[in-house]
Design goal:
Main location: mitochondrion
Order of helices and strands: HHH
Largest sheet: none
Keywords: Disulfide bond, Mitochondrion
Structural class: mainly alpha
Strand content: under 5%
Subcellular location: Mitochondrion
Family: Belongs to the cytochrome c oxidase subunit 6B family.
Helix content: 55-70%
Distance between the termini: 44 Å
Shape: globular
Number of strands: 0
InterPro entries: COA6_fun, COX6B-like, CX6/COA6-like_sf
């Protein structure tokens, strides 16, 4: 875990950059494996990338990134269904 020692202290710029890099690696892995929703990935697909994201990001951020990805993809699917 790469969180600041004092939970009220925000992550530094370099910590945020590393966090976002690992987030992008995780979501790129899902994309390469043709997985739309992180919840569909299972325990083994992209597990190293997911662990990297959780290691480099505050856990609340990593959880938020996954929730946001889920909501975004579900919204896209719903819009496509309505447009048909």
């Amino acid at each position: 875990m790469n969180e600041p020692k004092d939970s009220t202290t925000p992550p530094s710029r370099s910590m945020r950059k590393e966090c976002h890099k690992n987030r992008d690696l995780y979501f790129e892995c899902l994309k390469v494996n043709k997985i739309d929703l992180p919840s569909e990935a299972g325990p083994t697909i992209c597990s190293a990338e997911k662990k990297g994201m959780y290691d480099k990001c505050p856990h609340t951020w990593a959880d938020y990134f996954i929730q946001l990805q889920e909501l975004t993809k579900q919204r896209e699917k719903a819009l496509k269904a309505v447009q048909k």
